[in-house]
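User: Please predict the structure of the protein below. I'd like the answer in structure-token form so I can feed it into my own downstream comparison script.

Assistant: Understood. Taking the following sequence of 122 residues as input:
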Amino acid sequence: MIDHIGIKVSDFARSRAFYESALKPLGYVMVFSNDHEQYAGFAGPDRERIWIGRGEPQGYVHIAVLAHDRATVRRFYDEAIKAGGRDNGAAGLRPQYGPDYYGAFVLDPDGHNIEAVCFEKE
């Protein structure tokens, strides 16, 4: 299991709002934010963390977060789009990755690919 992941973001306030909304359906909550130093941490249901911090994004990041069911994947996608994310693949089956691979992909404000995925049958 991964303990934490860190992502550099170009606009801290915009990205903090995006991640707070997009990760909420997946059970993540913001557990720390330092507006002065511009970094924040979001904790998942199993204590894993996603940290964001102001800096120059370097390269492309892809994070896939496990969801409990397909409805949660759809809620993630909807909330991420409402929060300013860009569509990179609406919720649906991805048989090229496996028979029960159900995922949704959204680009965050810096173009990082954030995914929610589950392997449960509906």
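That's the full token string. The first helix runs from residue 12 to 23.
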